[in-house]
Amino acid sequence: MAGAIIENMSTRKLCIVGGILLVFQVIAFLVGGLIAPSPTTAVPYMSVKCIDVRKNHHKTKWLMPWGPNHCKKLKDFDEAVSRQIEANDIVFAVHVPLPTKEMSPWFQFMLFIMQLDIAFKMDNDLRENAEITLDVSLAYRDDTSSDWEEIAHAIEIRKLKCTFGSPKTMESEGRHYDCDFLPFMEIGSVAHKYYLINIRLPVNERKGINVGIGEIKDIRLVGIHQNGGFTKVWFAMKTFLTPSILIIMVWYWRRITLMTRAPVLLEKVIFALGISMTFINIPVEWFSIGFDWTWMLLFGDIRQGIFYAMLLSFWIIFCGEHMMDQNERNRLSGYWKQVGPIAVGSFCLFIFDMCERGVQLKNPFYSIWTTEVGTELAMAFIIVAGICLCLYFLFLCFMVFQVFRNISGKQSSLPAMSKARRLHYEGLIFRFKFLMLITLACAAMTVIFFIVSQVTEGHWKWGDITIQVNSAFFTGIYGMWNLYVFALMFLYAPSHKNYGEDQSNGDLGVNSGEELQLTTTITHVDGPTEVYKLARKEAQE
């Protein structure tokens, strides 16, 4: 009777905890959907064609498209031809942001893509697999009267991928090619108010530089940055969730240290998962408001990679520790086949990120996809990581199948136990199935909301209420995985409640007063688990 009361209380507590977590999950989605604006904003920029007159003793090498010190402009290239202005003397200038606006550190990052307006001309056709060489410079200043300070300068090559939907005849001259967008620039902080981009297209017929690229009419840029309002909501969530996870981590580890035995593998992995979640949560982004930390994007990728690697490792070890067979698994080396693909895949993605965003710390115009070698290298890393991920999920699915098969087989032994013990083990099995269901629900919600955010227009409007779907996806999924880690540490912290005298100790040879735990791997204070001993005894028989 006492065991039944304990199990009923435990199940009731589990339902209460689940209800509370569900409320917080709904709040996380609503914060992003109703309070935060859309995560990012895209701003189109049209470059201004300037005449580079530095050889005529111009005072600065930076050419402004507008303002009191704007450059001498060209309307089009026909004017340049009539005035005998060479292509090397033309600079495409873009000022960020648009007039009367300012950039802000709350924007966090800037990503630019380029679109070329290329017209067809019989005597200047676009060659197949043509490459365009860009001489690009980036500068900043924080007030309209200061001089421009250079951030970066580089000579970059981009492959042109264009199609022409009409026959290449005299009647088609002047029509534009349909060209793919080109990666142009990415910078991991927005520490200054004004930015200036100068783009030159140097021509050298002898070396074949910018020859056979068609007749370029204009250069357009699209700048993408994070919205300041979303950044504030995101920082607020991180600031709130950090102490929440820290508190449950301290409580969880304190419960473990009070035990008379050493921590088992599953307990260590859950604690490591909490550490990786805290690593993501710590709002170091607050410092990016006052410091020009261009490495924040790379740092964020590394933090997420560590968390996902720990999460995937936890799922494997969680299933293995609930296998309930005759094999000893309370050691990490027993999972090298399953954890190995995670390590290899994570390492490949880390190298790929370092080759892309790591180089961009010095050269924001760099892109690994712009050369054949870089593209092949990047694809190799991604393919290897994809293969490792597929192997991992095959291992995981096989282990989940084995766990459920073993649980079904061991349930036949439950009727031979005393009522209290039977209810205890039924509760353990229920909790395993409950966590598996929650895990599948979290993974499914992540995939579903990602797909919805990609196929919708970014917001839903119901009457006077506008729901930002993309923002709800970010805040909701971020909150969901925090709650998942919180629930793990809460449910799987060792309990210090004891049973009373067991009415039937002889059935399993178990001593009275054994400790009640929430995981099948750690129900005994100093030895193996009761379910494990049951499984081993049956296997030997």
UniProtKB/TrEMBL annotation:
UniProt-annotated location(s): Golgi apparatus membrane
Cellular component per GO, a single term: Golgi membrane
Superkingdom to which the source organism belongs: Eukaryota
Main location class: Golgi
Molecular-function GO terms, alphabetical: Wnt-protein binding
Residues in Wntless-like transmembrane domain copies: 227-496
GO terms of biological process kind: intracellular protein transport; Wnt protein secretion; Wnt signaling pathway
UniProt keyword list: Developmental protein, Golgi apparatus, Membrane, Transmembrane, Transmembrane helix, Wnt signaling pathway
Domain Wntless GOLD span(s) in chain numbering: 48-226
Membrane topology designation: Multi-pass membrane protein
Record-annotated membrane-spanning stretches: 233-253, 265-284, 296-318, 339-359, 379-407, 428-452, 472-493
Family (UniProt): Belongs to the wntless family.
Protein name in the entry: WLS protein
Gene from which this protein is expressed: Wls
